[in-house]
Design a protein that fits this description.
- By secondary structure, this protein is of the alpha/beta class.
- It contains 9 helices and 8 strands.
- The protein has helices at 20-31, 38-48, 51-61, 68-79, 97-109, 124-132, 173-187, 189-196, 209-235, and strands spanning 9-13, 34-37, 88-91, 116-121, 134-137, 143-145, 165-166, 200-204.
- Strand 5 and strand 6 (143-145) form a beta hairpin.
- The longest helix is centred in the C-terminal third of the chain and has 27 residues, at 209-235.
- The structure holds BIS(adenosine)-5'-pentaphosphate.
């Protein structure tokens, strides 16, 4: 079995629209980590028409949570991929206590653990606005917002130059409200769960995207350095965009 003891495992917690995906992608580049979004993995399964995708489709469109069994299996498979040995940022997983317990068991069996669960604290009312303005580039998946994050050149993706954008099927005001209810009922208890394990960090995430990135980097950097160890951290410093974390 692979040795995962120097593999950082971070969780971004927060309701729909809190900025988990936006920030996870930035941290991925800064620290050479891999973003694991169960929402993205489920949408891929839906698009591919797998059994899991067929079971998940209507549940996602209704703004409810997909069964723990499906999500845990999808996450377990992805976590076993070789690229994850660089370290992972979990975005949208776990979302229930049973998912958190399954994750803990899985990581323990691989010689690692959750090093930090970072709770992005936001106000529900603002989330409906954030989500209704969201769209992504059809080519590379880069995320944008009609008011808060527009491409530099109107209608052209900053990252890949693509000119087609799309919206998610569950990004309408009614479904967002149901997703917020699911968050408060089933996911918010994870804040106390990780606090009890001494892994919780909290961050006010109502500011501008760049300010939140800076604050997150302050939290994440020492953890990544500590877990990887200084030598392992410098091994990944050959990308000009990536922090050396030393
Ligand atoms: P998922 O895809 O995980 O969606 P979500 O948790 O509802 O989160 P979002 O992706 O909507 O929000 P985000 O926090 O990533 O915000 P973003 O950065 O995009 O899940 C979808 C569905 O899949 C679930 O409803 C469920 O059915 C199922 N599912 C997934 N995982 C599951 C699991 N583990 N168990 C069971 N079911 C599961 O930002 C939003 C917008 O705001 C963007 O346009 C962005 O540009 C903008 N923005 C970001 N930050 C700021 C800021 N600081 N200021 C202004 N605008 C900002």
């Amino acid at each position: 079995m692979r040795d995962y003891s120097n593999v950082p495992v971070l969780i971004l917690l927060g309701p729909p629209g809190a900025g988990k995906g936006t920030q996870a992608k930035i941290l991925e580049d800064h620290f050479g980590l891999v973003q694991l979004s169960t929402g993205d993995l489920l949408r891929e399964a839906v698009a591919a028409g797998t059994d899991a995708g067929k079971a998940a489709k209507s549940v996602m469109e209704a703004g409810e949570l997909v069964s723990d069994e499906i999500v845990i299996n999808i996450l377990r498979d992805r976590l076993g991929d070789p690229d994850c040995s660089a370290g992972v940022i979990l975005d949208g997983f776990p979302r229930t206590i049973p998912q958190a317990e399954a994750l803990s068991e899985l990581l323990t069996s691989q010689g690692t653990q959750v090093h930090a669960a970072i709770s992005l604290e936001v106000q529900d009312e603002a989330m409906v606005e954030r989500i209704s303005g969201r769209h992504t580039c059809d080519g590379c998946g880069e995320g944008y917002h009609e008011a808060f994050k527009r491409p530099v050149v109107e209608g052209v993706c900053d990252k890949c130059g693509g000119q087609k954008f799309r919206r998610r099927a569950d990004d309408n005001a009614d479904t967002v409200r149901r997703r917020l209810v699911a968050y408060h009922n089933e996911t918010a208890p994870l804040i106390a769960f990780y606090e009890g394990k001494g892994a919780l960090k909290t961050l006010d995430a109502m500011g501008e995207i760049n300010a939140i990135t800076d604050a997150l980097r302050q939290i994440v950097r020492p953890i990544v350095v500590d877990v990887r160890g200084v030598h392992a951290a410098t091994k990944t410093s050959n990308s000009s965009q990536m922090e050396t974390t030393t």
